[in-house]
Amino acid sequence: MATKRNRADSAASAVRAMVNASKDEIAVPAHVNLRGGDQVFWQGVVRARARDEWTETDLVVAAQLARCLHDIENEQSALDVEGTVIKNDKGTAVVNPRVSVLEQFARREMALMRTLRMGGRVAGAARDEAPGRKIERQSRKLREELEDDELLA
Description:
Elements: H1 11-22, H2 38-46, H3 56-82, E1 85-87, E2 93-95, H4 97-115, H5 125-148
Antiparallel strand pairs: 1-2
């Protein structure tokens, strides 16, 4: 039997958003490995949705997206140093192979974002979920401000 969903602008949704924001960050599933630099991207990806919107399968894809975003940053940093055009062994100017690597990563990023329904506006669903996401982001910000408040420490 399907459960009835509350409207995103309802009091129940606001309370749920506050409770979700008070919880610890969503953990990476135990069977998924993230590299050291992936964690920052992981946090950004999982914060893009309200906590109760994530499924186990989505979290695996979110980890793949975090790894991909980290790879894009690494390749872009190397490309910034090397330049878009480099000289080959014969001294001829050629396009740096990292350009095509970055294009492949960008395509993968977009595919993963589509899988997670994060790449733009989805007809209907995003309109319904956006207010709940906004409330949770505001609640998370309030939590961080309260944790930093010296009077409460």
